[in-house]
Design a protein that fits this description.
This protein has one helix and six strands. It has about 110 residues and is α+β, with helices and mostly antiparallel strands. It has two domains: about 45 residues; about 70 residues, no CATH class. Strand 2 and strand 3 form a beta hairpin. Helix content is about 40%, strand content about 30%. Bound molecules: zinc ion. The site of zinc ion has 8 residues, from loops.
Length: about 110
């Protein structure tokens, strides 16, 4: 292979890598647009005075938000969104992303869980 062919091959290689990066970026952008809407819904706009941040009992990292009025837990991680309502005798366990501690929500006698 002569120098010109080698340079051509390197250029093609770089070009195809750039195209891959570009495709990935477009996918990420699309994903971000989808999640940003939900994100603001779950994390910002809908936090009321009734809402309580549910933090890890060990390190304090945010695990989710507890809506006392609806008696519902909202949890988000990247493109994963969930609403939970454990109910009487129910429970919910979440492993903290910060310290790996297993946090558990359980109903107590007075109906207040966290
Ligand atoms: Zn933790």
């Amino acid at each position: 292979m002569n120098d010109t062919n080698q340079i051509k091959k390197i250029n093609q290689d770089i070009l195809s890598r750039l195209q891959n990066v570009e495709t990935s970026m477009k996918k990420i952008e699309k994903e971000l647009k989808n999640t940003t809407g939900l994100n603001s819904f779950i994390e910002n706009k809908h936090i009321t005075r009734q809402d309580k941040i549910w933090g890890c009992e060990k390190c304090g990292s945010r695990l989710g938000i507890y809506d006392k009025e609806k008696d519902e837990l909202r949890v988000r991680y990247r493109d994963f969104f969930a609403w939970w309502k454990p109910g009487i005798d129910g429970y919910l366990k979440i492993v903290c992303r910060g310290c790996s501690h297993i946090n558990e929500v359980r109903y107590t006698d007075n109906g207040d869980n966290i």
